[in-house]
Write a structure and sequence with these properties.
Layout: H1 15-28, H2 32-43, H3 50-82, H4 90-122
Helix pairs in contact: 1-2, 3-4
Length: about 130
Amino acid sequence: MRSRGSNRITVRLSDDELSQLDQAAAERGVKRTDWVAAAIRSRLPLTVPPRDNLEKLIDIRIELRSIGKNLNQAVKALHVANMEGSRLDLEREAGRIATFHASITEQTEAIGAALKGDLAYWQGEA
């Protein structure tokens, strides 16, 4: 067992949270303080910092903004292609929109994965 540290922190919990903490500590047969210290120590060596997910979300946001601009241009081109005498290829523009849709779906899934990773970290699953 590790030696007790000399530093102290304070945590404020609701009555319900404290009751849950007491129950978890009792189930393990340890004092409340020892349970909290063990829970914190178990999380310290992990290499999945929440900052990593934040950076991924920022990159995804930039990508989605770019896709949105391109999608707007493609929709405008579709409108022009529908005009009489237009030389724009309607099928090609519809294909571009389908590509943008696929990119948006991919980025949305990436956001979901990043958020799940962050949630898993804070729930102690990572």
